[in-house]
Structure formats: structure tokens, C-alpha cells
Structure prediction request, 81 residues.
Amino acid sequence: MQAVGGKSIEVWFVDEARVGQKNTITRRWAKRGTRPAAPKDQRTASAYIFGAICPALGKGAGLVMPRCTTEAMGLHLAEIA
Prediction:
């Protein structure tokens, strides 16, 4: 906690991260000039992690959300408050 103008404020450190599946390029051996089929999984799945800590008070807050949106960030800020 720090005092500014007679009021105490909390200093929080915040971070966001995306975790999940990210597909890679499928490679296949073939004769020059041919284009063989190379089926692969096209689905992706991700989760967004919002976290914050206040080391001075030993507090922490975090959310795991399916999407990173303005609403998700608003929920995260409400959790910190």
C-alpha cells in the first residue's frame, strides 16, 4: 500500500494469457509435381487466463474465460475491485 494525498492505494500487477491448442502445418512426402491430400484436425480450443496480484497485501484474483472480450476484462476488473 502506498499513501498518495492522504489516501492509501493498492498497487496491482496484471497479466493475461491465451492457452490451448494451435494446429501446425501438415507435411507429407510426395512425388514432385503432385499434391496429395493431407487431412488434419482443423479445430482449435483456447482459454484466456486473467490474473492479478497485490504483493503488499498478499491478495490475488484470477479468471479463466473462453474468450478475451471487453466484457471479460470488465469482469476481471470487478474481481480485483
